[in-house]
Amino acid sequence: MRRVLRNLLVDAVFFLFAIVFTVLIADSVLPDDLSPAAEATENAVWLVACLAVFARRRWPVLIAAALIVAGTWLHLLTGPTLVALFTVAAHRPPRVTAWVTALAMAPAPLAVAQHLLDPEPDRFVRGIVYFLLVLGAVGWGLYTRSRRQLIASLRERAERAAIDARRQAREDMAREMHDVLAHRLSLLSVHAGALEFNPTAPPAEVRRAAAVIRESAHQALDDLRDVIGVLRSAGDTGRPQPVLTDLERLAEESRTAGTRVVLDQRVADPGAAPAAAGRTAYRIVQEALTNARKHAAGAPVTVTVRGGPGTGLTVEVGNPVRGGGAPGPIPGAGQGLIGLAERASLAGGRLEHHRSADRFTLTAWLPWPAAGGGP
């Protein structure tokens, strides 16, 4: 509705332009010996041409061609003709505009030849002004068309960028959900499996395992609720993201679940690590511990973190291929290492993994600018 009103307003402005333009030039273009019948015909055709402005978007080429041809005999059609030429240039392809412009400029050579044979300065000047006005109307229309196309292109590019950003945000959230929930649920599975494997465990140990299961399930539900909230609102839950200093807490969680974790923290000031590098390092270690519980239950895991400003942050996680733990392997989607490689790449780093006959090693390098800052 808003666009319709805007178009009507623009058409009304062009209608007034055609009328005012004709009123201003009428005395100079109408012959003095014009008969009353001819004058009435001029006025009637001119009024119809002005009203045709309101149909210019539907039949721009037809209206322009008709006005150009009629203008070779009539004198008051310059204003509507300029509007029609502008519309053709603004709304039709350049090839069509070129043909219509050529039709409008066709009398130019004849006017020049006639002036050379029978010089009439006033008539010749009026012809020059007319052709300049034609070129001006066409040029303005071409400019309007190119500007409209540019705006449409920028809008389309912005919409595409917004769609890409939303898709990237959802991919990031899916990756985050995989890392967090896989860690929580693997802890839960380890303790539940331990209870199943050792049903005669002392009551105190059973209570402790049940408490860990309950806490892990509660945290998993909280994490899932946060993920769903972000997906719905496309915003931030406000929960703090993990940093490098949280690795000790992560290792302690795994120790509580029965995994022997040795954390070798060789970073002088972990709190100064860039947020992106610290968060990515945390998720890499988290996924590595989850994979160790899945595929080598009971095996000891060694986590080494070293580096600093200028040299980058190196994270290395290693564990034996086979563990000595109780429960069987925990099912997984097989996307963990792929997701970690993508996460490291997005952070500007790289990730490699190597499996020998008896050991699996995961190594990641993340950038740490010399200034000590980071994104």
UniProtKB/TrEMBL annotation:
InterPro entries named among the record's database cross-references: DUF7134, HATPase_C_sf, Sensor_HK_TwoCompSys, Sig_transdc_His_kin_sub3_dim/P
GO function terms (MF aspect): ATP binding; phosphorelay sensor kinase activity; protein dimerization activity
Annotated Signal transduction histidine kinase subgroup 3 dimerisation and phosphoacceptor domain residues: 170-234
Domain DUF7134, first and last residues per copy: 6-148
Enzyme class: transferase
EC number assigned by the record: 2.7.13.3
Keywords from the named record: ATP-binding, Kinase, Membrane, Nucleotide-binding, Phosphoprotein, Transferase, Transmembrane, Transmembrane helix, Two-component regulatory system
Entry GO terms, CC: membrane
Catalytic activity from the UniProt record: ATP + protein L-histidine = ADP + protein N-phospho-L-histidine
Endpoints of the signal sequence: none
CDD domains, per database record: HATPase_UhpB-NarQ-NarX-like
Segments crossing the lipid bilayer: 7-26, 61-89, 96-117, 123-143
PANTHER family: NITRATE/NITRITE SENSOR PROTEIN NARX-RELATED (PTHR24421), NITRATE_NITRITE SENSOR PROTEIN NARQ (PTHR24421:SF10)
Name assigned to this protein: histidine kinase
